[in-house]
Specification:
Elements (H helix, E strand, L loop, with lengths): L3 E4 L7 H11 L4 E4 L14 H14 L7 E3 L11 H21 L3 E4 L9 H17 L5 E5 L12 H10 L6 E6 H6 L7 H11 L5 E6 L1 E2 L10 E2 L8 H8 L8 E4 L10 H10 L3
Parallel strand pairs: 1-2, 1-10, 2-3, 3-4, 4-5, 5-6, 6-7, 7-10
Antiparallel strand pairs: 8-9
Helix pairs in contact: 1-2, 3-4, 4-5
Bound molecules: fe (iii) ion (2 copies) and zinc ion.
């Protein structure tokens, strides 16, 4: 079964219900959202009445809460070696986990972090320590490490680094991976041979860890390490290669999320989802 959706908004007055309605307007059957502005830590309380209304509507339409994704705010950097910044990241992520639990969300995508000069080994250690601390009080939210483009000092732009983080996490049932096609391509993985990429991932990390895939084209060539998303079929990855990922039999039932750029201030998701469905294979 294809679970396809996009990044959608989440605002104070409509919350999960509003996110769901936006997703439905794109003919999506799943979605991803930030529980507040991704660039700051301002958060307002979750309204259980709105959550229940969203659940009712999802049940009516057969939309599975378990396929819906939250994205952790990107200002969070667990790899940061500065103690107070690391602490801030751990505390804020713990709060995000609680918000996910309150919403019934079971999967949260996280950028592993940037080592900002302390080196890859220290960066990985900081991430692992932070994750283990967050998971102490977390019973139900699986944290999905996103594969990164390798911009700046980003950790997690190759499968080996993702594997090292997973190895350090004590509660393996609470850790997973979110592949991002733009990021993998930018990091140097050639999606013209996606079977090879998947095999490598399976050997190094294990395919069972993949719980979400971000579907984006890239504005740059393979290995550019730039992280500039492009609309589906308009970039250097191309429609065929993206369809290969979306309809790959080994990735069936895994949530696929579009994070492609708006075109003239309009979300492209309805058209992109239609294009993807039209090319079902
Ligand atoms: Fe991301
Ligand atoms: Fe992404
Ligand atoms: Zn990106």
């Amino acid at each position: 079964m294809l679970y396809i959706g996009s990044h959608v908004g989440f605002n104070k007055n409509s919350q999960l219900l509003g996110s769901l309605e936006e997703a439905l307007s794109y003919n999506a059957n799943t979605f991803m959202f930030y529980t507040g502005a991704p660039q700051n830590t301002m958060r307002y309380p979750i309204d259980d009445k709105l959550t229940q209304e969203a659940y009712d509507k999802m049940q009516e339409l057969g939309i599975l809460l378990d396929k819906v994704i939250v994205h952790a705010p990107y200002i969070i950097n667990l790899a940061n070696p500065v103690e107070e910044k690391h602490r801030f990241a751990v505390n804020f992520l713990s709060e995000e986990v609680k918000r996910c639990e309150k919403l019934g969300i079971t999967k949260m995508v996280l950028h592993p972090g940037s080592h900002v000069g302390c080196g890859i080994d220290n960066g990985i250690k900081n991430i692992v320590d932070g994750l283990n601390e967050i998971m102490k009080n977390n019973q139900s939210v699986c944290i999905l490490l996103e594969t990164m483009a390798g911009k700046g000092s980003e950790v997690g732009s190759n499968f080996e680094e993702i594997k090292r983080i997973i190895d350090g996490v004590e509660k393996k049932e609470l850790i997973g991976v979110c592949m991002d096609t733009c990021h993998m391509h930018d990091a140097g993985y050639d999606l013209n041979d996606f079977d090879k990429v998947l095999n490598d991932f399976d050997k190094i990390v294990g395919l069972s860890y993949v719980k979400c895939i971000h579907i984006n084209d890239s504005k740059n060539i393979c290995g550019a390490r730039r992280d500039r998303h492009e609309n589906i079929g308009k970039g250097y990855i191309g429609l065929e290669n993206l369809l290969n990922v979306i309809y790959h039999k080994k990735l069936d039932n895994i949530t696929k999320i579009l994070e492609t750029p708006y075109i003239n201030d309009v979300a492209p998701y309805k058209e992109e989802i239609a294009l993807i469905r039209k090319n079902a294979r």
